[in-house]
UniProtKB/TrEMBL annotation, chain A:
The chain crosses the membrane at residues 12-30, 58-77, 89-110, 191-210, 243-262, 314-331, 337-355, 375-395. This is Teichoic acid D-alanyltransferase. It is found in: Cell membrane. It comes from Lentilactobacillus hilgardii. It is a multi-pass membrane protein.
Automatic annotation (TrEMBL), chain B:
It is found in: Cytoplasm. Gene3D superfamilies: ACP-like (1.10.1200.10). 4'-phosphopantetheine is transferred from CoA to a specific serine of apo-DCP. One of its GO terms (molecular function) is ligase activity. It holds the Pfam family PP-binding. This is D-alanyl carrier protein. Belongs to the DltC family. The modification O-(pantetheine 4'-phosphoryl)serine is found at residue 36. It comes from the Bacteria. The gene is dltC.
């Protein structure tokens, strides 16, 4: 039996089209066939985690049972009458929730690149959903919790491998409802458009940048031994490939969700026309950056301001930017280039805020027009591409890797 | 009732430097007057000055994005 990366090849889409038709007819006539939806989900999970990948399938099942039990236990603790809502119970639950992910991320770093046996495709994205649910339960905003629906949320197959990261309360309200016929038709129309745009992004543009241009740049840079213009070429082609590949994938995930009557949030919004780095993070991998904003940055700021850790609000913001982006770097993996990538973005956010404050103070002296806006977009774009070059790990291969030629 | 409205408007005025008493339906995020930092400050101020306990989870950008929505939310939570 063969296996399929989600949205990886035409056959996967044919399976999708066939499997979704009964569900879509149901939705069109006001019914959500939940048992059928569960069967379809299982089928697609088996396509990805079965066959030669059965070991990761076992890892997924164990992980899934573990997390559902953990969140159920925490929910019962919080919903008990007069729940003491102790801080340490909350912290312990979050630690237990991220523990498997930490093991998976650290294993390759300490065992010379060997993958952990408890890992599987998409583990980080499920972890985000779990942690977020625990946090909102702590705050008392998840008042109803059903393990089966929580399971549906965690294993929602269109987004299982790489997001977008949905929110529990949002997902449940879609899952429990059936959209009105007119709204559903709009969803289908948008969904189909997204899927076709995804084809263009992933199978035409990402293919051209990633599989046609990038290898040439890579080869040129390797042959040049040291710095060369090929590295610059690599930087841009890699950035384009990264964007079109990931944005294409996200369009598929959102498009398929729409066909299932679930409004999974969008992941990208023209990131390369960002005017500054903050704007960029509001447009690039949005569900991840919003997750970091809502569950790390804002909570950290809230905690620090409440306990008056730093006197100045500016220092608090700056420290939190750096910590936030460093955690994002560590999340990508325990290598110097991911961590440096996070650090650079943290510093960029600090610089950005400083500049905006300076600009506001000297409004009368600093020009602001179409030209300066274009210039700002140009700088942001190039900075971002530079950080992607670091992120790609290519410099590591080029300068520190085993020589291939 | 008016007390809440006035306090919220004065908090927003401190945070953004703008007077919203005649622009109750202006979107604070679209015009980039509030960011995540400002939001946290807003939640802390609401806690201090009005005793409203609004955890960050409750904070949903689409429900808290204009002065009038914030006032309504605060009255509901009070």
């Amino acid at each position: 039996m063969r296996w399929y990366i989600p949205y990886g090849n035409p056959t996967y889409f044919i399976w999708l089209a066939v499997a979704l038709i009964p569900l879509m007819i149901g939705l069109l006539y006001g019914h959500r066939f939940r048992w059928y939806q569960t069967l379809v989900s299982l089928f697609f999970l088996i396509l990805t985690f079965g066959g030669p990948n059965w070991r990761t399938g076992i890892a997924l099942i164990c992980y899934f049972v573990y997390q559902v039990l953990l969140v159920s236990a925490y929910f019962h603790y919080r919903r008990r009458k007069d729940s003491p809502n102790k801080g340490w119970v909350f912290v312990l639950s979050v630690i237990l929730a991220i523990l498997p992910l930490v093991v998976v991320k650290v294993t390759p770093a300490i065992q010379s690149g060997k993958q952990s046996i408890i890992g599987f495709l998409g583990i980080s994205y499920i972890t985000f959903k779990v942690v977020q649910t625990i946090m909102e339960t702590r705050d008392g905003f998840i008042k109803e919790y059903h393990p089966i629906i929580f399971g549906q949320f965690l294993l929602f197959f269109p987004t299982i491998s790489s997001g977008p990261i949905d929110r529990y309360r949002r997902f449940v309200s879609d899952y429990e409802a059936v959209p009105a016929q007119k709204d559903y038709l709009d969803l289908v129309q948008t969904g189909v458009r997204y899927i076709f745009l995804g084809f263009l992004y992933k199978f035409v543009l990402a293919y051209y940048f990633g599989s046609v241009l990038m290898p040439q740049m890579q080869f040129g840079a390797m042959m040049a031994h040291g710095f060369s213009w090929y590295i610059v070429g690599y930087m841009y082609t890699y950035s384009m490939d990264l964007f079109f590949d990931f944005a294409g994938y996200s369009l598929f995930a959102v498009g398929i969700s729409y066909l299932m009557g679930i409004k999974t949030p969008m992941n990208f919004n023209h990131p390369f026309k960002s005017k500054n780095i903050k704007d960029f993070w509001n447009r690039w991998h949005m569900t991840l950056s919003f997750w970091f904003r809502d569950y790390i940055f804002m909570r950290l700021v809230f905690f620090m301001m409440k306990h008056k850790v730093f006197k100045s609000r500016i220092t608090t913001a700056n420290v939190c930017y750096i910590i936030n982006m460093l955690i994002m770097g560590f999340w990508h993996g325990e290598t110097w280039f991911y961590i440096l990538y996070g650090l650079l973005h943290g510093c960029a956010l600090v610089v950005n805020d400083t500049w905006l404050r300076y600009k506001k103070k000297h409004q009368d002296k600093i020009p602001h027009n179409k030209f300066t806006e274009l210039f700002a977009i140009f700088i942001t774009f190039n900075f971002v591409c530079f950080t992607f070059l670091i992120f790609s790990g290519f410099l590591n291969t080029l300068f520190f890797g085993p020589s291939k030629f | 009732m008016d007390d809440v409205k006035e306090t919220v408007l004065s908090i927003l005025n401190d945070l953004t430097g703008e007077d919203f008493s005649t622009r109750l339906d202006e979107n604070l995020y679209d015009s980039a007057l509030l960011d995540s930092m400002g939001t946290v400050q807003l939640l802390l101020d609401l806690q201090d000055k009005l005793g409203v306990n609004a955890p960050i989870s409750e904070f949903n950008r689409s429900e808290w994005d204009t002065p009038s929505k914030i006032i309504a939310k605060v009255e509901e939570l009070k």
